[in-house]
Amino acid sequence: MGMLKEFKDFAMRGNVVDLAVGVVIGGAFGKIVTSLVDQIIMPPIGVLTGGVDFSAMKWVLKPGDDSDPKHKIAEVAIQYGAFINVLIQFVIIAFAIFLVVKAINRLTRREEAAPAPPPPTETLLTEIRDLLKKQQP
Predict the structure, then answer these.
(1) How far is Cα 29 from Cα 54, in angstroms, rounded to an integer?
(2) What pTM does this model have?
(3) What is the pLDDT of residue 61?
(4) Do 93 and 85 form a contact (C-beta atoms < 8 A)?
(5) Running DSSP on this structure, what letter comes out for residue 49?
(6) Separation CA 7–CA 16 (nearest Å)
(7) What span, in angstroms and rounded, lies between the C-alpha atoms of 38 and 32?
(8) For residue 80, what pLDDT is reported?
(9) Are 75 and 64 in contact (CB under 8 A)?
(10) What is the rounded average pLDDT of the residues 105-111?
(11) How many C-beta atoms lie closer than 10 Å to residue 73's C-beta?
């Protein structure tokens, strides 16, 4: 029972739950960026380059042969167009993370600068002494 309780304490610790939430949100964000690149960014780039579809760009090393249905030979190719799409997705995700970290750093700097330094003890004691002198006849 001790190991089960220890595992429960570990799993319910704030950092583990935060990490799980971050992974789920990151996965969803990755899908959004993939859609943005594949359906919004790459089509105009394809039009600008003369109708080239980057995802279909490849260098065929060995062509496939499906003339014989029993002995199909798969195509062997280096798909550099898909790699270009993934690079663009990486740049977008890296830039978005950079913006988030920059915003968090800006907020933490403001919080650190907000509290005023406490007045020195000597100044407070001097003020109290002066107030007591004024009250005495």
Answers:
(1) 22
(2) 0.54
(3) 92
(4) no
(5) T
(6) 11
(7) 10
(8) 92
(9) yes
(10) 77
(11) 12
